Structures are given as C-alpha cells and as structure tokens.
Amino acid sequence: MTFQQPSSALIAPHAVHKGRRGSPAFPIRNLRRYITLLSQQLAIGASLIVKHPFKKPPVPTWPLHLTLFVAVIQATEAHQEHFVEDICDIRFWIDTFFHYLPKLPQMQIISFKLPIPAHGRGLGGVLEPLDQAENGHRVLPGQWISDSKVWSRIMHMPLARSAQGSKDPYAAREGEKVILYYHGGGYFICSTATHRELLWRISKATGRRIFAVDYRLAPEHPFPAALHDASHAFCHLTDPKECGFDPANVTIAGDSAGGGLTVGLLMYQRDQGMPTPSKAVLLSPWLDLTMSCESWVTNEMDYLPSPPKFEHSFNPISFYCQPNVKALSRHPYISPLLGYLGELPPLLIQCGEAERLRDECVLFTYKAGGCLGSSNRLPFQSSSSPRHHSKHVELDMYPGMVHVFHAIPFLPEANMALERMLDFMQRKESEAEVASLEAEDAGKVSEITTTTTTMFDDKMMMREDARLEVILAKAQDVL
C-alpha cells in the first residue's frame, strides 16, 4: 500500500520509509524545549506534593504517586506541540528511554526477526492485496518475553507433538499455553520494548511466555498493515512447520490500540473461517475510533488527551484511517464496537472506571454478549437472519483507575487485574457446563463485574451501578 501523508501531519521526510520508524539524529535543536518541559514537570510535581495533604486529588481514592504520574503525563501532552517537531521525535524519545532502561535480571528476552513468506499465507478478504504483494524480503521484528523461571521450566519440557516438524528452537512444548500480545500506542508509537516490563509481569503472574511483535505503524503504514502483521504473527505461532502451537493453547491479548487490533483480528479470522485462539484478554481496549462515547468527554481526569480534531497534526485516527478517515474509522476491523460481535471466543475486558475508554468497553461487553438486540446484527443481514452472541464475555471495571493501569506497577489494582487474567485463562469448562450456562443464561451471557477494594463502600458501588444503567440507556444512540 502506498504511503499517503495526511496534509496536516507533522512528519519529517525521513519518516517515510519501508521500515517501522525513522532514525532521526539527536534533536539538539529541541534541547532547550525539553529542558523547559522538564522544569515544568518538576514544578508540577513539587506543587502537588506540597498541596496533597490539603487538596483533594482529581479522584478521591488516588494516592499521591498516581496523582503525580497522571499530572506529569498530562503536562507533557499539553505542551507536545511546543517540543515535538514530528512523529520521529516522539518515537525517538520513547524508544531511546526504553532502550536504555535497565532490564530486570528476572526477565528473559529473546529478540527475533520473523521472515514473511514470499507468497504470503493465502490470506483473503481485506488482507488479500497486502498478502499477495509479499516478495519474501520483509521481516517482522518482535520478542519472546518471559519471566526467567517460567522460561527455564518451559525450555526443559519436551517438544509438542504439533511442533515435531518445526526447526524453531523456541517452538511449542507439550501442553504449553502461550500468550500472543499486541502492544498499544495509538497505532503510531510504542513497541515491544516499551511494554516489556508489563509483559514480564504478565508472564510471571500467568506462568506463560509471551510472543510479541512490532507490527507496522501509521502513518507510514495505515490500515490494514497492522492487521496483516497481527494475522501473520498468529499464523507463525500455530503453523506446525514454525512454532507449532495448537490454536486452543493460544490466548491473544493487547492493550489500548493493541486491544482493538486483537478484536479486529478475531473478527477477521471469524469472517474468513480461520482457526481462532482459545480466549482473548483486552486491557483498556480502543474499540471505537469515532470516539462516540460520552466518557471521552466526562473522564477528563484520565491521562489520555481529549479527542483530537480530524485536522489536528497528531491525530492517530487520521494516521491510521487513510485515505478516507471518516468512512474508514467506522470499519468493523478498525472500530469493532460498530461491527458484528457474535461468534467470538471467550473475552475478558479490563478497564478503569476513570478512563476515557470506559463507556465503549461497557457497550462492547453488552453488545458482544447479545444484550443490545438488533445492534448485534451484520449490516447486510435481514431482521429474520440468524444471530449468534459470543460466549463468556466478561468486563472487570476497576474504580478510580486510569487507562491501562496495568502498566503502573505500584498500583495494587494492577496486580489484582493480572491475577484475574490468570483466573480467566485457566478456567476449564466441560461441554456439559457450557450447555448448562447457555440454557441458563440465554440472551444474558455478558458478565459485568466492578472490582472493588476496601476503599470503596456500598454507596459508591451503587452509584457505579447507576452509571452503567445510564450508559446502556444511551447505547442505541451510539450503535
């Protein structure tokens, strides 16, 4: 697909390339601006520390360190146009910081470059043009990330029968469960390196190693490039001649944009009749790029910026949804909330009550579970066409938490969420139990749980339940 630069994009010529990102020289010209920004952040931090005993934080239950964390990020976003010249500047500073961040001794990281077959993988539908254009010269970079004890245990296990024909030294082990992870970053920044600490904690909590890829980023590579790479990664994991994992032993997970990409992949696999993973875990997923939900406006305490205007220089939506932004932003593989969500594998969605993406996570849960009536029908289906809901769709909403709070290691809620993730992935249900559930909960499959701590009383939880009722009452207007 030819790169088409948005007319308003702040992107330097060297950012338009065949690889994942540009390689700008050290931006000395901006050093003064960075020093100014740093001094502002230090002043904000000092002010918050002094005022904290006397002034309530934006969310009453926030500890000081979370208040500081959010305030610093908000200050950076508020001044980004004063110190960022182009997208490469953003990527440079993010990647440089995480590249030199010391690796914990408990981490096991194996980098790889996954070769793309010259003739693709026979993918159809929206991915067919990209798949047919493969010439065998492209590679997909990524990493195996694991807790060192988990890695050592797995590497001593015998090779799986499904991987007997594999030459990959890290192929599937007998009975091994694995996680395929897609990182967030608005489809235009971040990488496996930026997420390695979170992925290590997920590996440690779940006892599984994680396969993460650096899918192509916008605006150099708009939709469906990321979906193509996501599909390729899953095919590599499950191909008997490559990693050889049984799809039933694979859980797909992703945060933010990576969560939306995860659902887009599940929908594509369903539509193409391809094998699907056993389950999926979505951490604060970005499911509606039209930004239709009210929490984008009401939850301004979150560190995510307010919805950008379409002509804004750093609008990830205009980057990803080229060339027709308003039309493509409603594509079901881009905004899964607006598509048909039936016949998907079991899903666990985790989000923060204070984040801007809260409402779309709630609506997605109800819609995927078949609780929104006709809104869960394919656009080309008649009212008499058969409809199916997805089974076992669960939402954990954590009071007071912000976007992808899982990545903030000092929060107790982050550890609680990882424990819930393990519980969800380990859940075993016999066919009889599934049949019983379907008979018992027909038409009411989705499960909404508000995860609480001792800091939240019954009255507060009643207010949260009432808030959910309001969100659902507005669902038909959004969908």
From TrEMBL:
Catalytic residue list: 256
Every Alpha/beta hydrolase fold-3 domain range: 179-362
What keywords are annotated for this sequence in UniProt?
Hydrolase
Give the matching Pfam families.
Abhydrolase_3
Any GO MF annotation of the entry: hydrolase activity
Q: Which InterPro entries match?
A: AB_hydrolase_3 (IPR013094), AB_hydrolase_fold (IPR029058), GDXG_lipolytic_enzyme (IPR050300), Lipase_GDXG_put_SER_AS (IPR033140)
SUPFAM superfamilies, A to Z: alpha/beta-Hydrolases (SSF53474)
User: What protein family is recorded?
Assistant: Belongs to the 'GDXG' lipolytic enzyme family.
Q: Which PANTHER family match?
A: AB HYDROLASE SUPERFAMILY PROTEIN C4A8.06C, ALPHA_BETA HYDROLASE FOLD-3 DOMAIN-CONTAINING PROTEIN
Name used for this protein in its record: Alpha/beta hydrolase fold-3 domain-containing protein
Upper classification of the source organism reads: Eukaryota, Fungi, Fungi incertae sedis, Mucoromycota, Mortierellomycotina
